[in-house]
C-alpha cells in the first residue's frame, strides 16, 4: 500500500470570472523511503495539489478526488479534528520562501517548540532541548543561541533550515518540500538538497519534492511526475524520464536546459504543442 495514494484529484477555484480548474484529474502516489519529484513550470498546479493534501487551500477552493488516502486513512472524509492530528505530525510540509513562512513576531525557538507542544506534548526544558537538537540536526551548530533569534535576524539559508527543523520535529512519515531552494544561492541550494535527501534516508520518510528545476529532479528523485496546466503529462522513473521522455512537454523542458541549446538559440517551452504521454490521462 502506498504511503500516500491519490486518484483523480481536481482542485477548482471560484473566481470573479468563473470557475478556474487549477488541478485537473491527476493521480499521485508515493511510498515510504521514496523520493517523488513533481516538476513543471510555474502555474502547473504542483503546489496546489499538495496544499489540497494538507488542507491549506482557501475557502474559494473545491477539492474532489476518487481517493485521497494516507496509510489507508481517507483524508477527504476525515473530521477536521482527526486530520489536525496527522497534518504537521505524520505529514509535514516545507513551504516556499522561508522568511515569509515564518512568523516575524515570534522567535524561531518559540515556533519550533510550538510544534513540539502541539504534537508531542513536550514543554519547557524538554521542548527547548529537543529544539536545540533539531537545529543541530539541520546544520545550525549554535542552536541554543539561535533559539532566541527572530526570522529577520537570520539569513535565508538559516531560515530554510529552521523550516526543515519544524517540519521534521515530529519525525513525519511523509515530507513535502515545495521549492525548498528558491531564492537561495547555489552553494546553499546544494547544502539544503543534500540535507533533505540525508534526512529522508535516515528517517525512512517518503519525500515529495516540488520543483521546476530539472537539475534538482536528476539529483534527488527516484520517480517523477511532470505537470502542465493542472494535467499530468508523464510519470516515469528518473532515468527513463531523462533518457527517453514520452511526453513532448517533458522533451520541451529538457530542451530548454542551457546545455541543450542548439546554435545561438535556446528553445523555449512555448515552441511546443503539449500532449500527455501515451497512456497518461
UniProtKB/TrEMBL annotation:
Where does this protein chiefly localize?
membrane
Q: Which Pfam families match?
A: ABC_tran
Q: Does the keyword Membrane apply?
A: yes
Q: Which PROSITE patterns match?
A: ABC_TRANSPORTER_1 (PS00211), ABC_TRANSPORTER_2 (PS50893)
Keywords from UniProt, A to Z, are: ATP-binding, Cell membrane, Membrane, Nucleotide-binding, Transport
- Is RNA-binding tagged as a keyword? no
Domain ABC transporter, by residue range, is 4-254
**Sorted alphabetically, which SUPFAM superfamilies does this protein's record hold?**
P-loop containing nucleoside triphosphate hydrolases
Where does the record say this protein resides? Cell inner membrane
Report membrane topology: Peripheral membrane protein
GO terms for MF: ATP binding
Query: What protein family does this chain belong to?
Result: Belongs to the ABC transporter superfamily.
**What is this protein's name?**
ABC transporter ATP-binding protein
